[in-house]
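$ ./design --mode recover --in tokens.txt
reading tokens...
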């Protein structure tokens, strides 16, 4: 039965959707709180210290207090309204906790040593953080690299605070290159268990989430958690660049894709209304496309034009990246949709389109590289299985696509099948090419 959490509802009602996004305030559904807490506190010693460093309205502490009346409960949050809501929710349940208004990521750390951390730390992308805060955190936390999220900093501090952790996190850290340091930190701490949550667990938040259980009792298990309970599906698979909850990661022989082609983002113009329009209006207008226009094998019809004027773009917004025309005005190139997700979506462009920044452009590094063969490999079932097992996020990252293994021979039949857009022939030719690579035959 869900407890009285109305104080938390009143707290969130004070926040606009933009404020909640900026602060990462997405309370965990009660059924998740209850299930995670039951599992995490079951075999703790007497009078354990249980900490939530981003306690929000106190629901993890409330669940822990009900299940372990002997526990010492400590909650920390940077939002005074959240602390007030936590006080009210815990009081309504007849519980007491030490609640601190503080920044859990401050120096020195305001967090006490604990036996267990239960938490859903805030999910905030670096571009949504104030510049000064981001600069400070990225300088102090080893896991805050590249485009990692604020929650990574919380995980690093949590792992330094308690020997046992039960955390609700986005699944992005399992596969994005930006979280390689976080994966290493978790791995170095010993075995852990990971369970996926339903895609609609957090209403209003477009994020896939997992439960991480780390510390005593963890055994590198993988599975899922639903309202009906826990399901174990097998061992957690840890690959060099990604972890998987869906079994062993499929492997492919071959050299990296970027051994054969270079990858470039499309035109970053910085001002769509000024430069992009449905009709040709200016002598510098070039036919363009967006990720939505990239169909399997071919681009959709021209629906927009981009006024390609790099000097003007850079003068208005120095951070833009118009690239140079030599990337786009070529007889042949591959255009890859930037939001393909677990199955890549790419097309051959022989119309000299100038794709926008929701696309990537692939160009051959040498004249011998047959782009039709490259396109065939990217659209094959083999590569889809390899890529999809490692990258669940909707957005495609060039650094991840660049690692796709491509065999060094057997390209001719792959290219022929790709030109014919014959998927059955393509997959047979791709299978033969990878088999030859694996056995070292030519």
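writing sequence...
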């Amino acid at each position: 039965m869900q407890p009285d959490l109305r104080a938390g509802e009143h707290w969130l009602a004070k926040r606009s959707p933009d404020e909640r996004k900026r602060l990462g305030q997405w309370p965990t559904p009660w059924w998740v709180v209850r299930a995670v807490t039951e599992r995490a506190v079951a075999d703790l010693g007497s009078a354990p210290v249980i900490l939530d460093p981003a306690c929000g309205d106190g629901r993890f502490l409330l669940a822990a207090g009900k299940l372990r009346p002997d526990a010492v409960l400590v909650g920390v949050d940077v939002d005074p309204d959240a602390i007030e809501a936590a006080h009210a929710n815990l009081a309504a349940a007849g519980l007491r906790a030490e609640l601190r208004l503080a920044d859990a990521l401050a120096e020195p750390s305001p967090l006490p040593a604990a036996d267990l951390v239960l938490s859903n730390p805030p999910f905030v992308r670096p571009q949504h953080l104030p510049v000064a805060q981001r600069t400070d955190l990225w300088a102090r936390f080893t896991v805050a690299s590249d485009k990692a999220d604020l929650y990574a900093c919380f995980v690093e501090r949590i792992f330094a605070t308690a020997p046992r952790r039960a955390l609700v996190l986005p699944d992005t850290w399992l596969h994005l290159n930006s979280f390689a340091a976080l994966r290493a930190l978790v791995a170095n701490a010993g075995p852990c268990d990971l369970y996926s949550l339903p895609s609609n667990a957090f209403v209003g938040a477009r994020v896939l989430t997992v439960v991480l259980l780390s510390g005593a009792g963890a055994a590198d298990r993988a599975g899922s958690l639903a309202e009906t309970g826990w399901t174990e599906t097998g061992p957690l698979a840890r690959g060099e660049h990604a972890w998987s909850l869906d079994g062993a990661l499929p492997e492919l022989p071959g050299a990296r894709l970027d051994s054969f082609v270079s990858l470039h983002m499309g035109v970053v113009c910085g001002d769509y209304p000024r430069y992009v329009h449905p009709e040709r209006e200016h002598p510098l207008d070039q036919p363009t496309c967006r990720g939505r226009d990239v169909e399997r094998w071919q681009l959709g019809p021209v629906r927009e034009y981009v006024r390609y004027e790099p000097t003007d773009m850079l003068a208005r917004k120095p951070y833009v990246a118009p690239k140079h025309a030599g990337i786009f005005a070529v007889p042949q190139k591959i255009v890859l949709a930037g939001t393909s997700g677990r199955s890549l979506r790419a097309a051959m462009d022989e119309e000299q389109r100038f794709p926008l920044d929701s696309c990537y452009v692939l160009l051959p590094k040498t004249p011998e590289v047959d782009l039709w063969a490259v396109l065939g490999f990217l659209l094959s079932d083999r590569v889809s299985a390899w890529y999809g097992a490692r990258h669940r996020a909707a957005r495609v990252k060039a650094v991840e696509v660049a690692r796709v293994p491509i065999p060094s021979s057997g390209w001719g039949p792959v290219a022929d099948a790709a030109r014919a857009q014959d998927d059955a022939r393509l997959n047979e030719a791709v299978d033969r090419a990878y088999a030859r690579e694996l056995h070292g035959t030519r």
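exit 0
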